[in-house]
Write a structure and sequence with these properties.
Helices cover about 75% and strands about 5% of the residues of chain A. With about 100 residues, chain A is mainly alpha-helical. The termini of chain A are far apart. Chain B has a domain at about 295-465. The chains are: A mainly alpha (about 100), B mainly alpha (about 500).
Chain lengths: ~100, ~500
Amino acid sequence: MITLGHYLVVSGMLFSLGLAGVIARRNIIIVYMCLEMMLSAANLALVGFSRFHLTNGLPDYTAQSLVFFTITVAAAEVAVGLAIIVALFRSKQSVDVESVTKLQG
Amino acid sequence: MSVFTIEAGLALLGLALLLLEAFKPDISRRTLGLTAIAGTSLALVLFIFAPHDNASLPGFIQPWHQLDSLALFYKGFSLVITILVLWLTLECAPYLTRFTVDGKLAEMFSLPLIVCAGMMWMASARDLVTVFVALELVTVSFYVLVAFARKSAFSLEAGVKYLILGALSTGVLVYGIAWIYGATGTMSFDGIAKALANPATSKTTALFGAAVLLCGLGFKVAAAPFHMWVPDVYQGAPTPVTAFLSVGSKAAGFVVLTRALNAFMAEGSIIGSEIQALILVVGSLTVLLGSLPAMFQASVKRLLAYSSISHAGYLLLALACRESARFDLSSGGVVAFYLATYLPMTVLGFLGLGLMRANGLGEDIKDFTGLAKRNPLLALLMTLSFASLAGLPLTAGFLGKLFVFLGLADHGYWGALSCAVIAAAAGFYYYFKTILAMYTTEGTDVPALTFSGPAKAVAGALALAILILGVYPKPLQKVLTSDRPAVVAK
């Protein structure tokens, strides 16, 4: 029997993996993929909570509506983000995080 | 015409300008800019005369939208800052276009309108779904704006940094929302407050969710330890966008934070005291980590970025003080008051920076040397702006800080108060260091510096606002007191 706990553990693992990737990876594209993974982790948690939060025997759909918004927003974010990363690659011929260290105090 | 229609109209105008530029590429940027400014000004006028009660909103939006005094204040605030930013863009256009790919500024005039609509929606959000969607509308538009001058390596780098950290904060925010929902079973702020007052709610889950959610919002308002991106992004972004980020984006973050904390720290909340302690610690850290590094900055733009962090710290400290009954202002009211005083002084500061760039000068403190000789009026206005940012009495900045300090003293938060006082003292040092540079007479053969008539008028109006708010703040206080007749609590 799969319980709410199972979903939350998987979602927590996805979230931590994503966060670790954002901190440790040097390639901006991979960092960006890890960010998307964190959003998916949040979505999984939302759907899990929604499925196990029954009102009148039916799942509560508020959280699931947020999931659809998150997916849409993530798509918009990727569209804008990849455009900026491509612009960076054109000017520096690199997508390494080391290529963005000009601004320092 | 309802307030909601005005907001939707503003977003549509932004889209229309975007399409107009795409299909009629020979349209001049002056026409575009002036149309955007005229549209936003019209929206401001319509907004002032629109009915200000919940019943005036279209029925389908009422469950997710509210018009209380806080929402109305932030809506007006968003419109004013958008008009100023659009105008500043037009003023800075000659040198900004050198860094854009086709020498045009089209999206710089349409995206701020969309950002403005997003900020206005955020101000009246009643639940976390609306907050999330409006917040992302603002953030994604800002990704484009920050990286807009992409022939400049600095702007592009700032754009990439803002993109990565903004997306990270989005992920953290949604994860926090998920756990809050898990603990309380609802997304609406009223529902969360109600659920948290119920002792049966799991305290650990709620606390975890609230802390993660506050981390996500902390990124947006630049609270320590999530403030690292601010100096780089503010320095690299085009100056009008920096002003917009520093005032508009911050205000939008704080209205959400105010509403979230009102729910988390409501009467009888099971996690109220923990969250309050967290906000106090984060606020104290933020004022210090903003003010102390600012003393060692060579670039004025970067200095203003650090100062913006420390101002966020004061605002957080204001939010930690519940029920400051002293000025008829709730903690959210004190924050709104502080932001209202913060708007003219920050915009004036960035206006000065933009004018210096337009005259071919840099943004370092050494570029300010002898400014009083080049243009006494600009030097005087910048002095007023910096003195107000430091919190000199009789300027607007003083009253905002005074309210925060008195609130902290009333509650006996002496540790936080001492951090705030140290930060304010450091503030006096670095602001007056810049002012001093303006009035030194070394390098006497400096060329004169000119600025246009409209620029003088706007700068003068901002300076006047600083002085008036500093001497006679009563009208603003009245707008923010919660027993306003126009407000219908639902």
